Amino acid sequence: MEDTEDFVGQGPHPVDDDVFKEPMKKRRRSDRDQRFRAFPSAEQSALKEYEKLESRTRRVLSNTYQKLIQSVFLDDSIPNGVKYLINRLLALIEKPSLDPIYIGLFGSTGAGKSSLINAIIQQAMFLPVSGESICTSCIVQVSSGCCEQYEAKIHLLSDQEWKEELKNLTKLLHRTEEPDREEADVWDRDDAVEEAIWKLQMFYGNGAERKSYEELLRARPKGKIPTSRIITLKAEEAGELSVKLDPYIWTQRRDLDGESAETQIWPLIKHVEVTLPKSELIPEGVVLVDIPGTGDFNSKRDEMWKKTIDKCSVIWVISDIERVSGGRAHEDLLNESIKACQRGFCRDVALVVTKTDKLHLPEYLRERKARNRKLPGDSKVLEASDLVYTVSAQEYWQQALLTEEETEIPRLRGYIRKSLLDKKRRMVTKYVTEAFGLLLLTDSFNCTKNPPNEYLHMSGLRRFVEEKIQLLQKAIDQCFAHIEQPLQEGVRNARTSYRRILGACLVRSRGNQGFHQTLKAVCLKNGVYASRTLARIDLNEAITQPIYDQIDPVFGGIFRAGMPTGSTLLPHIEAFKHSLQEKMMEIGVRNGWKYDSYKKSFLIQEISAILGGLEDYILRKKRRIYESLTTSVQNDLKPCYEEAAQITGKKACERMKDVLRRGVERQVAEGMFERAQERMRHQFQLLKNGITEKVKGSIATMLTLASSQGDGLYKELADVKSEYKEMEKLHRSLKEVAENAVLRKGMQDFLLRMSPSKAVPPKAI
Predict the structure, then answer these.
(1) Are 576 and 472 spatial neighbours (Cβ–Cβ below 8 Å)?
(2) Which helix (H) or strand (E) holds 260?
């Protein structure tokens, strides 16, 4: 029930006893206007109208809230109906204007992610770039704000997080027995060991790699660590901040002495947030995230790596043209991005091919025209029209062979603007509509009386709701049933292929050379190892991949938006919502709600608010469902990993492999894959329980509060007629704002088509 419990309290209308809370302050007009600098004039006008609608709506809600608070301030007890209204009003007042849109630039080292961000924000060398080596060493978030200066915040590992990594690093380097000559050579060439030595030397100084964990705990770091674990940098100019920031995010070379204060704490850096002042190219509310392609050895950094990918609503897989033409790295990254769509919030994936200036121009232009690229075809995400962007940051600056438009940098900026504008339009429309429903009910309390047969009407509606909930439960069961056959087939495939997969993971082309301590690192991290230079290793994911190969197409279909089908969940919830709203309309027409049209409208609007919150809940929970297979396998194999990690001395690599093989064999024989299957089923059941509990509880509360005023739930409230009338005007103006936006966009497109130079639309003054 833990999954259900952590959701029920997240509904839009919890009855909170702390009803006298002060709403947060409004944002200043001058600050709000700065958010639109990145948009052409037509889009600026639309955004300003939506912003004005939102601002006026918040003002109406705040006035209503204050009146209700004053009317009950001296009461010994506040009726539940009034609590409901007050808490709903406060929740809407404090609702964030717009959650950020995270656009993840996901790619291998050296693919050109930083160069692309620099071109998009019009700052050539803002993030470190180099044609010869890896540059960005951690997750870097770039956004714009209403600040006056350029600002960066470097977030460091906490003391406990560093101790955890330190313990793993020293375990990786610890040898209780003298290795033979062959393994001594392997030690020197092992990437995991080199990186561990490098981190310890940089943080504690030369010789740190020979000290124990306890000795290093007592040792004094070379650099000064702020108690807040955050380093803040500010500068008036972009170049100035770039110089200050470089030592923190530039991948440090191992042949440097590491004496600067910045490089000495480099191993502690978790991630970096950069804020640009009032950008005319990147609108506030959009966050560009430079994501390394492999994750990190540190558990917290690796967890952040995964969560960052999953919270991105858009992922651009970055790969340079030479790797796309001759390698598989871009396909692996694209597949990882598609997994993010399966388990996270991502709705859009595109392949951004960088460094196209390396191609011969006629070949490049011909390929752009043909759009002939080989990409995985097992996801609906890949049906998007703008799947591939071919860009050149270098040509964007030089324009020796390509125009600015042909570099496709402006096209990416246009995509960013459109994403934010669409999200703002949807958010304001929903916000104003929801606010109007609350004002309808609030005003109705003081101006209407329920007809004598109200209880009969509400009783009939409750029976209808109960019947529809039962049908919704059956529809959910039908959706989830579609995963059953692929899940069973995947388990059978996993049982027949796990030896081959595990063998491939444990074999290297050069034998054990360069793999001894890397395998130990894999075991120390429960089957997962990520470094800046090697491809990510995840034994748990590899072993369960045959199951994912079977379920992925169906799993994606269950959580995809679209027309109702047997396997698609969200449209069934949408159909459930419409059936309730239609029933309320029918009851209202036939049975006397003509005396209380406010209540009918409120119920219809509140149904939308209640069920609208389900989508976010489902998206949050689907990650737990999707990862339940690998999590289950990892938990079952944990004793095996721990045993292998303790092995040292002669032939340690082969002995570790033997422990892993025997451990996997034993767990498979005891039903490891079947347990993973049951745990995924259990997670699906928890999601179903969460959905139905939310629907039952929230709608039951709403119907109770909307029923008779004579049951003690309500009292006479302050007069809010003026607020209701203003809210009614705002609600009517939604359609007008949308029509104006379409008209302006059409005029802008016409002027662009008629312009010989195809110039970028002018900015509004």
Answers:
(1) yes
(2) none
